[in-house]
Amino acid sequence: MGEPRILNLSADAWEEIERHAIDCFPEECCGVIVHDGPADKVRRLRNIQNQLRALDPATYPRDATIAYAMDAIEFDNVVQEAERSGAKIKAFYHSHPDHEAYFSQEDKAFAMPFGEPIYPDTAQIVVSIYDRIVRRIAAYAWSEDKKDFVEIPVNRSGCL
Do β-strands 133-143 and 148-152 pair in parallel, antiparallel, or remain unpaired? Predict the structure, then answer.
């Protein structure tokens, strides 16, 4: 449980994540993938990083081109909807405009606000996008052995 594995994404989810990254470029996109048994469903969330920065630039020095903050209300709604329907939070995703698809220290801090992952069995997806062209989609999973996130294979499949 929580160990490195392969992340399978439906073609529809893969394409929606790519569209979201393109739509938000040059800012980071963010969202959640919910799996309800027969399908992966992408839930786009608003990146409120610029609003947070405008309110408190000392606490939020980075803008949305190099950072993201998921809208907490939208996030809570997605989690509650998944819990009510018996669906699983399969992955969180965000993009790195004009950067590679690595799992940064800031990404780890978001996934582990208290030193341990809040969702240890949920993958973290990072999308590398340059000039509105998606170069790579990478996935990371919590490794209990390494006490860190490690890159795992991500497969695009026809239907899940």
Answer: antiparallel
